[in-house]
Every structure is written in structure tokens, then in C-alpha cells.
Amino acid sequence: MNRYIRIGYVAPRLVGALLLYILIEVGAGIALRQSIIQGGQAAVGARVEVREVAVSLRHARATIEGLQLANPSRPMENLLEADRLELDFDGNSLLRRKAIVDHAVLRGARFGVPRETSGALDPSDKTTDTASFAPWITEGAKNAATAWAEKLGGDIEGRLQSTIDEFESPRLADELAERWPARYQALRDEADALRDEARRFRDELRVARENPLRYVDQLAAAPSRLRALTARLKQLQTDVASLPREIEADRQQIAVARRADESRLRASLAADQLDANSLTTQLLGDTVTQPIAEAISWLRWVRRMTPSTKATGNVTPASRGVDVQFLGLQQRPNLLIRALDIEGSATLAGRPVEMTGVLTGLTTEPSLHGEPMRLVLSTTGGAKLEVRATIDRSTPVPSETIHIDCPNFTVPRLELGPAAGLALRTDPSVGNLTVSLQTEGEALSGQMQLVQEQLQIEPALGPNASAFSARLAEAAAGRLGRLNRAATRVDLAGTLNTPKVTVWSSLGTGLAESLRGAAEGVISQERERLLAASSEDLAERLARFDAALRPLQEAVSGAVEGSGGDLKSLSSAVLAAGSGRGSLSFEKLGQQLPKAGSLFR
Amino acid sequence: MSDWYFAPLRATVAALVAHDSTRQIAVGVVLGAILGLLPKATLLAAIFAFALAAFRVNRAAGLASAGFFAMLTPWLDPLLHAVGFRVLAAPSLQSSFAWLYDLPLGPWMGFHNSVAMGSLLVGLYIAYPLYLAVRSLLDRVRPRLVSWVMKYRVARVLLGADVASRWGAL
């Protein structure tokens, strides 16, 4: 043996190898710590911190303590914090250059814990998860609901009164009261003028009759002048006779305007402008959408962290030559964690909970592993939650399935509307939440159902609430008291980056119906009261108008009658003059007169 | 620093004037040739390096041979790859290679690499001819070469420096 082998060389090397092994037992943790930090930061895209790593080659075990993974979207928050991670490797796999963990335990895991320093690798990088979620949870819906609440809580009486002040019917009544006296005055003036004209005609006729030769022209024109005066009288009488019909037509116009005013008043304060969906959003927005938004964000993160890997070909390029994959050889991933037990704590619905779960099939090469990654997570304590997720990267099209059950959790107290005025307050209620999400490639589908029990909604009055708001709150209290159960369903569609949400909820609908009913009742009462007052005011205006019109009517009638009498006697005089009952008739006078030319010879 | 520059020359001189037999020198050259051809980040290379150091062969000749063949690899790699890939891709050998690869430390050996396999095969193929060639060459030229080298002061200096450096290390 000694002839071929240098024992003096081999023996020290063997001792050296033993020392090296001991050194590795002690110092491998330092190297592994560095590789975890560098590899983790490359994978997560944010700072990864590890307090201590211990490695045991003999037991093929690694223990990582004080693990912190910063959130790349929110650098001042840790995506994951864990007190301790224990990894039990398969020794045979390590000899085959594969890091396969048979069993791992993650203890003291916490999610979303704030950091003291930024976890961003590059402080200038402000990358955040900006993918839109859904228009349903935008501020618009909240504003709509708040605006409605403010509208109800505002000066309804004042707005009713201002609407009444803009009524058309009183304006028409006032216009009538101004127009008709003027009209009567004009008729009266016409009657007086006619009478004066008749009297003047009579006097002129009398003078002409006394000296017919001198006033022969006037006497000849007398009949036509009389006919003109008679025609004016007839027109005046016709006008006076049509007055009642015109007055009635104006009254009808006022009645029509009155009806239009009433319709406008009812339309202007109709309580059907509250969108049930806006109310649902305001009352359940965060409660309903937060789990979905978190689940989708988580899915996006998982999609980034675990991209699909294609099965490697038979030949892989190497620094020199190529590495050949032999046919018939079962390929295994370079890193595989068969089962990872998770123990930790979290905050759910504002309550601390204990969390346990198992993650299986976590690997860097899912296509080689051939099985999907599965996560089962449940909580105990303040709130119960069960999450079952399947992440499949073994096929060319990545897919995920998430199912979340959250029974009997507390939906927190919520308030809708201005606190100083009229607001709606929901007491904490018991909710049962079920979320089911599926993704296939980029396509997203799923449904969320929330059933709320022991629901209590009551109106709340702030210090600036008006008397009307108080009446509304009183009317709404009874109706809202009957709303003690609500079901909400959210349908998800679209893609991971642009999910589309369709919401249906019995809460928003019921609440809107209750509030609308209460508001309609109160507004209707107030409206009818003000309408009655307005009607009374209009009736008074019309009565005053009638009273003012009556003497005018009598005066005009008297003036017309007087004019008629004068014209009648004038007509008799003219006829008498024409028939010769006077000293000289017009015809006789004409016949007795010599030829026109002889008189002035 | 000077030790680093003169080490190859000193190794050559030491290999020639050492008391090792020509057989030991030839085996050292063969082991060094295979080691020089092999990719170094494999367990195969480590095994050959350990063999070169552990067996009673001329280490200086082995290291010189390894350096020489390592310098040739840029030109030899296409040939080594072609040979290795042809063997690794042979359908009839797939199950055997798969079994070997699946053994503990199989992937660390590196034989699934085409250049490593080609280097191993070419190295083994030239091993015996190289052994014979080196041995016959040494048998013929070594006595004359030793006497010729020892005539020069520089050779003695190199050997003395080698001894001195060993003592210095102690």
C-alpha cells in the first residue's frame, strides 16, 4: 500500500478534510445567510433580512432566525416576518445536487408588520401596485351617498319654500290683477269717449237743424257718422260681453299653472334619487372589497413570485460544452419544499388571531415537480378564517384557485353621512364571508358572498341637524329597524390587472327603500302643508281680484249703457230729421233749394 | 512573488532530477493530462487532483502536464465536446448514464457535461500511449539531460531555492 500511496500526504489531508467539515458545520450558516439575502432580494424585489442562520450538515438541517421580507409595494411594511424557519433537507437529494426539503416549519410568522426603515432596495424606486381594482369602490359612490344624506339633512323647508316662491300660478294671478283693471279702464274710457262723441254729435246736429243751409254738409254726413258711432258702440258691447269668457280663460290658465307648480314641487323633492348601489358601497365597501382586493393583490404577487417555468430540454448550455439530461431519468427541481408548517399570528377584522397552516409543493421548478402548490391556512382566536389556495404552474398556462371562508366575523361599526347633521349608523354585526376566486392565465373569475346577521341600522342626529332632519330620522327609525339581515353578492370577472366587479346587495336596496319611504312620507307631509298654504294664498288673491273687478265691471256696464242711450236718442233725432218731422227735412230742403249756380249769380 | 514565477521552471527541473522512476513521472504526466483537460468544477477533476497528490507519482511532472493541457483546452474543447456529446447521446447508454447520474454524488461528478465526458474519454484514450511515450523518452534522454542540467549553476540555484523555500516554510 505504502508503495503506491503517500500515507504521509493522505493522512494530513484526511485530518484536514475532517477539520473542514467541522468548519463547514460552523461556518456554512454565514454563507447560507448571504445566499438567502441575495437570492431572496432578487426574487422578492425588496430588502430581505436574516438575523442568524445555523446549518448542520450531519443532520441536513438549516435554521434561519429573524427572517424579514419587505413588501416591494409598501417599503415601510414587511410582507412576512418570522421568528424562525427550520428546514429539514433530504440528505440523499443534497448528494444529488438538489435542495429538497422534506419538512419545514415557519414559526412566529406575521404578515404586514410595519418596518422602522424602508425595505426598498432602491430608495428612489416608488413602485406600487397600481393596477386598477374596480370602479365600484371609487370615491364617486361614497360621494353620491354622502350627497344624498346631506340633501336629506339640509334645509328642506327652505328649499320647499323657495320652490313655492318660484310658482307660476301666483305670478299669473298677480298679472291678472294688474291687467284686468287696466282693461276695464280702457273699455270704460272707450264708453265715455263714445258718449262724449254722441253728445257732441247731437249738439252739432241741433245747430245744423236750426240752420240747415249753412250746415248742409254736416246734415248730409250725419247718417254715416251715426252709423260709425253705432258700430263703435256695438264693438264696445261685444267687448264687454266677451269679458267673462276671457276672465274664465285666464282663471283656467292659472289653474293649469297651479297644477304644473304642484308637479314641479313633487318632482323637485322626490326621494327616489338615492342609488342603492352607492349605499351598499358606502356601508359595505371596505368590508366586502377588502378581502377581494387583498386576495387579488396576493394573486398578483404570487404570479410575480412564481412565474411559469417551462420544462428544460434534454440539453442545457454550460460554461464549457452542454449538460445532457438522460432519457428515463426522473428530473427533480433544484429546490423543493415538500411541506411547510406555518405558525404565526395576524390581525383579522381588527382582532389578533393565531394562524396555522401548511404549504405543500413549494418549488422553483413546478414543471419538473408536476404538482401544484397548495396552501391551507386557518385562524383561531378573535376571528375564524380558512384559506385554501392552489397554485398550479405545472402546465403552460398558470392558474390559481383561492377559497376563503370567514364565518361569524364582526363587521365593524359604520357611519354614513355627515356626523353634524343626519347620519346613518350601523352597529357591529355578524358576517359570514365566502370568497372563491379562480384564475386561468390572465382571466379572472369568482364570487364573493357576505351574509350579515343581527344587523342594526339607526339614524343619528348631529348638533347641526334641522327640524326636518329630526322628523326624517323619526320616520326612518321604524323602517330601518326592520332591516336586520342582509346578503351581498359580488361577481368577479375581467383580468388580474383590470378586474370587473358586479355587486348586488339586499342591504343597499333595503336601506334605499326604507330611507326613500321615510323621506317621501316626511316630504309629502311638508309639501302638502305648504301646498295647502299656497292654495289658500292663491284663492285669496283671486278673491281680491274678483272683489276689485266687480265695481269696474259695473262702471263699464253703466258707461256702455249710457253711451247706448245717448246714441239711441241721437239716432232718433237723426231719423226724425230724415223723415221731416222737424221744421225741414233734408230731402225737402234739397228740393226747395234753387239750382246751385243761381244762388250766387 | 519570484517563487510564483519560477515555480514551473523549478518543477520541471525537479521532475527531471528527482529520484522518482521514469514510470512515476510518466504516470504523473498522464494524470496531469487528464486533470488539465477536465473542467475543474467537477468531482472528477477533484478525484484526479487527489490521485495525483496521493499516489506515489511525480507531482511536479503531473502539475506541469496539467498546466500544459489546460492551456490547450480552448482549442481542444470542440473536439472534446463532440466526443463527449456523441457518447452521452448514445441511446443504448442512456439507462446506464441515468443510473449513474442518479447515484449519490452523481450530479457532482460532472460526467453529464459533454466536455467533461469528452475530456475523460480522450484522456483515458491517450493515457497509455502517453505513458509509453513519456517513459521511453525519459529512459533515453533523462541521464544526459540530468548531467547537462546539473552543469549549469542556474539549475542548482533553482533546486537550492526550492530546498530553501521548503525550509523557510518550516
Automatic annotation (TrEMBL), chain A:
Family matches, as InterPro entries: CHP03545
Q: What keywords are annotated for this sequence in UniProt?
A: Coiled coil
Q: Which residues form a coiled coil?
A: 184-246
Record keyword Coiled coil present = yes
Please give the NCBIfam families that the UniProt record associates with this protein: TIGR03545 family protein
**Protein name per the record:** TIGR03545 family protein
Q: Which organism is it from?
A: Botrimarina hoheduenensis
From TrEMBL, chain B:
Keywords, ordered alphabetically = Membrane, Transmembrane, Transmembrane helix
**InterPro entries, alphabetized:** CHP03546
Keyword Transmembrane on entry = yes
Enumerate the transmembrane spans.
Answer: 25-55, 67-89, 109-134
Quote the protein name from its UniProt record: DUF2062 domain-containing protein
- Its source organism is Botrimarina hoheduenensis
